[in-house]
């Protein structure tokens, strides 16, 4: 395999793996990494407290009050998110919408496999790395669609709250997913091109043989 293509492909997979790993940890363990967030100009309720922001991660949500104090819950994937107004209206984002976020750790595992095979020495390793990179891209594409669906559902539920002004945005981990998707696709192309370049050079050994190869026969 071409060393240049290998370095580019392996670097892309390494960065994608790192981003995917920390994105898979997400909330509530890494509070800066959420997939969807909602900010409220008009506070809503959570028990006896008023909330100004809600952030959703894979393993649980985080709630922020008017003073930016944070309360996070590690409830596992597939958790419901209740939205309650001061007038008693309640809207619930069901657990089926957050359950799909568990696809992200699956993508992390597949990227790790692709990264490992990129460094393997046996002949078919580059091909396996390309195939697993493409597979991880497909899984990330599914995860990307799930994130957008969750965003749309939260946007819809916030819009249903009467007298509440809220703004729904994508979180940091969502943009990580987009970067990961681009990186694994670039890595797959680089590893494939490197494999082709390596095959081409091996197909014509007579032109690169240290002993002069075929043309040495015609030298005087």
From TrEMBL:
The keyword Transmembrane applies. InterPro entries: pH-response_reg_palI/RIM9, SUR7/Rim9-like_fungi. It comes from the Eukaryota. Gene3D superfamilies: 1.20.140.150. The chain crosses the membrane at residues 101-120, 127-152, 172-193. Keywords: Membrane, Transmembrane, Transmembrane helix. GO terms for cellular component: cell division site; growing cell tip; plasma membrane. This is Pali-domain-containing protein. It comes from Mycena indigotica. The lineage of its organism: Eukaryota, Fungi, Dikarya, Basidiomycota, Agaricomycotina.
């Amino acid at each position: 395999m071409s060393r240049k293509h290998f370095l580019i492909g392996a670097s892309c997979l390494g960065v994608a793996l790192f981003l995917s790993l920390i994105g898979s940890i997400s909330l509530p363990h890494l509070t800066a990494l959420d997939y969807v967030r909602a900010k409220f100009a008009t506070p809503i309720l959570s028990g006896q407290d008023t909330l100004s922001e809600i952030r959703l991660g894979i393993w649980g949500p985080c709630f922020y009050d008017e003073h930016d104090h944070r309360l996070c819950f590690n409830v596992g994937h597939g958790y419901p998110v209740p939205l309650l107004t001061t007038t008693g209206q309640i809207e619930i984002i069901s657990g089926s919408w957050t359950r799909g976020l568990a696809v992200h750790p699956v993508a992390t595992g597949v990227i790790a496999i692709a990264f490992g095979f990129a460094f393997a020495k046996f002949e078919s390793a580059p091909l396996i790395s390309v195939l697993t990179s493409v597979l991880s891209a497909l899984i990330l594409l599914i995860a990307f669609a799930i994130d957008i669906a969750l965003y749309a559902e939260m946007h819809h539920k916030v819009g249903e709250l009467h007298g509440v002004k809220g703004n729904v945005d994508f979180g940091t981990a969502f943009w990580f997913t987009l970067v990961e998707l681009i990186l694994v696709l670039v890595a797959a192309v680089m590893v494939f091109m490197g494999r082709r370049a390596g095959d081409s050079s091996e197909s014509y050994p007579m032109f690169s043989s240290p002993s002069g190869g075929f043309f040495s026969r015609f030298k005087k």
